Amino acid sequence: MTESEPTTTVSAAATGRAASTVRSAREPRCAADTEGDAGGLRAPGPRERCFDAAVLAYVARSPQATVVALGEGLGTGFWRLDNGRLTWLTVQPPATAAMRRMLLPDGPRRRTVPCAVTDHRWLDAVPQPDRGVVVVAPGVLTRMPPPAARALFAACAERFPGGALVFDALPRRVTALARWCAGLSDGRWPASRWGLDRADLPRVASAHPGIAAVRELPFFRGLSAGPERRRPTRLPGVRAVAPLVVEVRFAAR
């Protein structure tokens, strides 16, 4: 693990929940089950639904694409999003990769790559990138120093033409507050190292000439029927501190 790589710890309770979740994820479920914690499988929250929608949209265009889940931990996105044709790679530091492999053994189209996110050798593990690649990094880039985040954008743009990278970020003022709180907690809270304001989105495209587009995804869509709840980032003062989910698209060659 490199110095800048976020660390992940897995408690015994989380391990037990993960085992139950995996069993439930493999079982057929009715539509009503998606509304709650049915059978031990927690329904995705707003952020997860946003990432899921981005992956589904990409896979609809490229059904045999590879989904690369950076820092997924014990997540079960494969079972939510599998179309029967995609390939799924989970990139984890070696210690947590071993835990994931114990609970979620590799399958024909799904495997765990024991590698730090900031160690770009994991890019070599992506099979047939010409079939399409979508990289998802929930909660990962906020714990990277800015140069490491830009290096990730550039590496993916270089290696995955026609692909996409989806990540989330906190505005700069929220990141600064999180760092201050982390300092007061004596290391008990993880520190956010990289913040991104909505006005900074065009700067993301400057990380590599192969970045074709950068756009914010509708994080809050579908939370309720009321238009005020669907787009709370339009409320005065909320937009400046609301988290972002961003999609970076790479130009095809």
Rounded to the nearest angstrom, the radius of gyration is 18 Å
- Average pLDDT number: 78
Strand count = 7
State the helical fraction.
25-40%
Structural class: alpha/beta
Shape category = globular
Strand % is 15-25%
Task: Write the element-wise H/E pattern from the N-terminal end onward.
Answer: HHEHEHEEHEHHEHE
Main sheet record:
7 strands, mixed
Unreliable stretches, pLDDT < 50, 5 or more residues?
A: 1-12, 14-40, 222-230
If helices are DSSP runs of H or I spanning 4 or more residues, what is the number of helices? 8
* Strand order in the sheet with the most strands: 3-2-1-4-5-7-6
What is the straight-line distance between the termini?
33 Å
How would you characterize this protein structure?
There is one protein chain. The protein has 253 residues and is an alpha/beta fold. The radius of gyration is 18 Å and the shape is globular. The protein has helices at residues 12-25, 46-61, 77-81, 94-103, 146-159, 172-184, 201-204, 227-230; strands at 66-70, 87-92, 110-114, 133-137, 164-169, 211-216, 244-250. The protein is built from eight helices and seven strands, in the order ααβαβαββαβααβαβ. The chain has a seven-stranded mixed β-sheet.
